[in-house]
Specification:
Chain A is α/β, with parallel strands linked by helices. Chain A has 9 helices and 14 strands. Classes of the chains: A alpha/beta, B mainly alpha.
Chain lengths: 338, 343
């Protein structure tokens, strides 16, 4: 080899490919195959939010007369999902639907799966785009990020110090939302709001609880916390509801109505948001089945039917957006059960 | 003959064969790609276990191995991000691992602190330093010309390159432990460091080197880990020290030192890797997997106690009776009791 300067970053940018031979042509008139085996691989099997998503997904697969199942690690680390992907390849599943803990760590295994003809759909948290065919996005990331800032601003009167309590430091989705939150905060109408700290609860209930406690104790004039993760917001709500900060510090973010109901009713939380996780899984289930049946291939502009949700079109980079998030408050929270 | 039969290694071998026999009933288990993955998935654990084995034989422990791995992975990411050539990174990272090992060594050997306390401390310290280096970032894009060394099998076989490295390290540790004078003195140290010291064996120097070796091997494991997942992160291999310790104990190594073989640890590693794979293929949930591994571990420390009278074994210095006495001698409670009887 001519290069004697060693291998450095970027010295081999030109190696494209890697897509893993999934250039099958789509046939829009193909029927959804019966008996498809579709596995849902959440970030962490004990995450109540993702269990809900996967329930929706398994429902969709069953509607289509396939076999759906949920498997996954009990810790949200990058590498633990890889063992599961390998297992699903060995089990010859027809499709893998995954929420990636680390977009790069799972990429080689997912490419391996695609090269063996397994359809790969990501939801909730995307993998490297060349390691999956479709990403089902819960809502437009930009819209989520910006709307969280607006929710918080409305509650604290557009003024004061705020903090963010996120999931793991590498969580793709949280980091994207935080990026848009920061951008939104640069607008003049939010000039009196100061983001002082981003804390990470690692999507672990106890750690999130402690981080919330730490934020409130270390920043005495903190006005509000945004927690864009269901584990974080409920842990923070539990801490605040039994602390002297109740009613003084505002908490908003992304949570499920069932987790947050008591905290909305006792006044700890005024308003928070979320999309419907069951519909997210349902849509991912339909997308996976359509891919595995050859109805779609993941290209921009392809359309498919997603059962009761109607027709969806694949957007840029193989992305499908579920729809805008719903805001929950004391007036409407009892209309939802998830 | 019966003693021979009841050796823990034999029990393990049976367990191992059992796991693989049951496994072959699961769809896809016997396929080359699966066996390759099974071996690959345990390569880092195996390296850490081989690093731990000689340390545990001397009655010490190094719980910081996985954090050392994490730090070295974060360092790899930082250096790679800074545009340093991968060929330069490899020796630097191994040096860093050895340096972290030397911190443990100084604290344990020079200051005479208990290794359990020291390495629980450095477990947190090194993991923390990893976060200092890389923070919440994940570095990726490692060179495609080196990555196959951590992911691929030798052409035409199911044996991954990484496994060859593991086998090589295992063989080297086996030679060190079972075939050299230093190796024999490890057992002696484990059975009574003071006595060994008085016998003219350089206990401190040996222990010191073992911690350096441990740091170096953890660094090597970090390179495989980072390349295999193509992701350098501060939380890489979080908690892996417990899996490695479990493999060492399941392999029949006494946590008090003085007893254990490389063959035992290797068999335990294979059994654990096989078991994990089979349970995965059968869709056994993570919780149940933990329960099974936990029970196996308890079994591994229980069985030798139950069969104690029959066990003549691997303390290579003396045969059965004296061996049993030494063992009691290694336990301070036993020492006291004996003194009482003596007086």
């Amino acid at each position: 080899m001519a290069s004697c300067g060693g291998t450095t970053k970027g010295s081999e940018e030109a190696q494209g490919d890697g897509g893993g031979g999934t250039a099958r042509e789509a046939d829009p008139n193909a029927e959804i195959k019966e008996g498809l085996q579709i596995a849902f691989l959440p970030k962490e099997i004990d995450n109540p939010y993702e269990v809900l998503v996967d329930e929706g997904g398994i429902d969709a697969v069953e509607e289509l007369k396939g076999e759906g199942k949920e498997v996954g690690p009990s810790d949200a680390s990058a590498s633990s999902q890889v063992s599961y992907i390998n297992t699903l390849i060995q089990q010859r599943q027809d499709a893998i639907v995954i929420a990636a803990n680390d977009p790069n760590a799972v990429a080689p295994a997912l490419k391996d799966a695609m090269s063996k003809g397994i359809a790969v759909v990501t939801y909730d948290s995307d993998a490297a785009p060349d390691a999956r065919q479709i990403f089902v996005n819960q809502a437009d990331s930009e819209e989520i990020g910006r709307s969280q800032v607006k929710l918080m601003s409305d509650q604290i009167g557009g003024e004061g110090k705020i903090a963010i309590l996120s999931a793991t430091p590498n969580a793709t989705n949280q980091n994207t939302w935080i990026k848009f939150m920061k951008d939104e905060l640069t607008k003049p109408e939010y000039s009196k709001i100061e983001l002082v700290k981003i804390a990470y609860g690692d999507d672990d209930d106890q750690k999130s609880f402690q981080e919330a406690q730490g934020l409130l104790q270390s920043i005495p004039d903190l006005k509000g916390i945004i927690s864009p993760t269901t584990v974080g917001i409920s842990a923070a709500a539990r801490y605040i509801s039994s602390s002297p900060y109740k009613g003084k510090v505002k908490l908003t973010g992304l949570g499920t109505p069932n987790q947050m109901r008591q905290f909305v009713k006792d006044g700890t939380v005024t308003e928070f948001a979320l999309w419907n996780p069951i519909e997210l899984g349902y849509l991912a289930g339909y997308a996976a089945a359509s891919l595995a049946s050859g109805k779609i291939s993941g290209k921009e502009g392809e359309k498919f039917e997603a059962g009761k949700l109607g027709e969806y079109e694949i957007g840029k980079d193989g992305e499908i957006i579920l729809g805008p998030p719903t805001n929950f408050n004391a007036d409407n929270i009892d209309d939802f059960d998830f | 003959m019966l003693d021979r039969f009841l050796r823990w290694e034999t029990v393990l071998l049976v367990l191992c064969v059992g796991v693989f026999a049951v496994g072959s009933a699961s769809d896809g288990f016997g396929e080359q790609s699966n066996i390759a993955f099974l071996l690959l998935d345990y390569s880092e654990v195996a390296l850490l276990a081989f690093a731990l084995l000689p340390i545990v034989l001397t009655g010490e422990i190094d719980l910081s191995v996985a954090s050392t791995l994490g730090f070295c992975s974060a360092l790899t990411g930082t250096l790679w991000d800074a545009g340093i050539g991968f060929e330069t990174i490899v020796p630097l990272v191994i040096l860093a691992g050895v340096a972290l090992g030397s911190v443990n060594a100084v604290l344990v050997v020079r200051f005479g602190l208990p290794s359990l306390a020291v390495t629980i401390g450095t477990l947190g310290l090194y993991r923390g330093l990893a976060y200092v280096l890389l923070g919440d970032r994940a570095v990726t894009g490692f060179p495609e010309n080196y990555r196959p060394l951590a992911t691929d099998s030798i052409a035409g076989t199911f044996v991954p390159y990484a496994t060859v490295l593991v086998l090589f390290v295992g063989a080297a540790v086996a030679v060190l432990v079972h075939k050299t004078t230093t190796g024999r003195s490890l057992y002696a140290i484990g059975l009574g460091a003071q006595t060994t010291r008085f016998s003219g064996i350089r206990v401190d120097r040996i222990k010191f080197s073992l911690f350096l070796l441990s740091g170096g091997l953890a660094a090597v494991a970090s390179l495989i880990y980072t390349l295999r997942y193509n992701s350098a992160r501060a939380d890489n291999a979080n908690g892996m020290e417990l899996v490695a310790v479990a493999a060492v104990l399941l392999g029949g190594v006494s946590i008090f030192g003085g007893r254990g073989t490389v063959l035992g640890v290797a068999t335990a590693l294979l059994a654990m890797a096989g078991l994990r794979n089979v349970l995965f293929l059968d869709d056994v949930s993570n919780e149940i997997q933990n329960v099974i591994t936990g029970l196996l571990l308890i079994l591994s420390v229980l069985v030798p106690v139950v069969f104690k009278p029959r066990r003549t074994k691997d303390a290579p210095l003396e045969p059965s009776v004296a061996d049993a006495e030494r063992r009691t001698g290694a336990d301070p409670g036993g020492e006291l009791r004996r003194d009482h009887q003596g007086v």
